[in-house]
Amino acid sequence: MKKLLISLGVLASLHFVHAQTITSKKWQDIFSYNNVLAMKEDNGKIVAATENGIFYYTISTGEITKLSKANGLHEVKISAFDYNPQTKIGLIGYQNGSLDVITPAGITYVVDIPIATGYNGSKKINHISITGDKAIVSVGYGVSIFDLKKKEFGDSALFVSGGVYQASNEATILNNKVYAVTNNGLKTHDLNTTFPVFSTWATEVNGSFTDVDSESTVAFSSSTSVQLLINNTFTTLPQTFTNVQDVVVNGDNIVVADINSVYSYSLTGGLIGNVSIGEECNTATRINSKIFTGTKLSGIKNEERNTFKPDGPYFNDSYKVRIFNENQLLVSSGARVGGFNESIDNPKNPGFYYFNGMEWVYPSYFKGSSTKFNVLDAIADPANPNDIFFTNYSNSPGQGIYKMKYNTTNKDFDFTKLYTVGADGILDRRPVGFAYDDQNNLVADLAYSEGKYPGMAFYDRGTDNFLVRMVTLTSSGMQQPLFNQGLFWIPLPRSNEFLVYDHKQTINTSDDTEYIIHQSNGLPSNSEGTLSVAIDKSGDAWIGTFTGLRILPNAATEIKSNPQLEPIVIEQGGIAEELFKDSQILQIEVDAGNQKWVSVDGGGVYYLSASGEQTLKHFTKENSPLPTNSVTDIKVDKKTGRVYFVTYDGIVTYQGDVGDVTSGFGNVLVYPNPVVYSNFKGKVTIKGLAEKTNIRITDAAGNLVHSAVARSGYYEWDLNNQRGTRVASGIYFVLMTNEDGSDKATAKIAVVN
């Protein structure tokens, strides 16, 4: 198995795609690996497929490694998987119909399944079964053969009768014969020239069947029964099951994963044994007479109920993230529906996830709760970080603000209190988000106060309650507030307005003042409302709307005297146009160098220069590990430069070049270094710079070859000299001073052409 471990390292760096390479060492995933969909054993190692990635568990050593879109795969939302231990080739199917072929030489992305003319159904890959160098792929229209050597599709059998397509739920190949289970029976056909013709397929057994597998024999199941092929006859096992999740033919035994238990049988149908899992499972396998189960919520589980999986959040559902105490995280799992903070019907009913600096913790309070949760925000009390507040934005019982306390002994949360944020009986005071002021006063903003107004709720530590003040506006909705320069800045998504709230640094609401930005102040005339806000290091407010971006210079002062917002105008091909015109701006984040990360709904994330006039990077799901092109939150760890991108399908991080930028130098780092042209043809990055850095680069003789001024905490040199031509091979010295000359730094760069 050491050979497979080595190949995994290769997989992370070698992948063959129909577009550009989308991963690098700068990316990491923060995915949930709890929900194991399929498993395969390879000489003591279990290869397990989950919603957003694959992980490898070595039974003897406990070693766990993972493979995801952050280090090799090309998609998320895995729906099918199989692996051949003999060839070391795996095949991953996704909900969007694409495939990843995993081999020891790399990963190949197959963009799409072949779609029949007239078929308009789901492209989701329902199931994959590998036999030798062929895989049978089950989809909504029937089955297709995939050649693993050629990495291309062959024949497809379209299960269509009277113009109506039948899905293949699962299919397998044994002795050159295909067995496919459908809602209309077990279908079979030899792999011959008439295979694509549906009328030549035989219905072996009538009924509705969900699972099938083969190796030494064939087994298939409905939700409550399992049948085996014994002496060329299908025989039903005497056991009646509760809800069969999977059937696996595993050498000389058959493993049946029922909803809460796993049963193993001989090839003749004799019961070998059963194991109670204690929770819902998806699949199971038998290795050296021991049962290993792929669960919905705990990764891989053995007979002793020990669990094995990469650490991560409980679910992938994510909406907002907060960073506190340097390396701790709080992730809220709520959602906006149709562009608004509507209550949702998520069957998982997730709450919030907490990373305590060492491991992820999911409060047991949310497990099995009958309360309907839509957690739009969670925040730690700066005065006592073990106290966590979260909002439950809902129109159901249980709506309100919750207080929880982290119990460091059992690594769980204890419920403390539910605050109804207002008069009893007023159900429609829905808390959205939080902010702390500079006196550690907590404020929550409320939507639908009295069913029609926004509101502000201030936490009174003395009475342990919230003081509510309604704001008379046409907007009934609000977004997460931002506190900056003594003011709360609040987007209003249900009216073309923006609220700035002055609480006079107290929780006494009698003297509070509101400032409202309207269309007359420069908001786009065609916008339905405002969605996001950030204040940059120059004191300018960047406001995201449903139809573009607006800037309010010197915001804290200008907001009090008829403010005028400005768009960013850029030149494209000699034509001036507004940046992000008619785009929904979901989130804006400012890094330590005053550059801006901007999330555009459906358009990925843009990394802009401080002024916004230059695009430094543009990440999408097509050219990066982003799970989707709609990123609901962005946070930058100002100390490390690590950027968190939050989506409904999970979280990924990117190691940015801008860390803790101050007037002096940090830990100056140059990379790559040395720069070998045959290996690297990009720019050299110098990071750890001051807010304003004067840079002079000389050759070994002291001749000036390049000079620049960096204003962002890092600088990229294209290795060209003052004349614009590439410098010769040699050692180059980087001499740097900060703005007032009070701090200096040097570095060396080796260039090999």
UniProtKB/TrEMBL annotation:
Residues 48-201 form the PorZ N-terminal beta-propeller domain. The keyword Transport does not apply. Gene3D superfamilies: 2.60.40.4070, YVTN repeat-like/Quinoprotein amine dehydrogenase. InterPro entries: PorZ_N (IPR048954), WD40/YVTN_repeat-like_dom_sf (IPR015943). The keyword Cytoplasm does not apply. Keywords: Signal. Residues 1-19 form the signal peptide. This is T9SS type A sorting domain-containing protein. The lineage of its organism: Bacteria, Pseudomonadati, Bacteroidota, Flavobacteriia, Flavobacteriales.
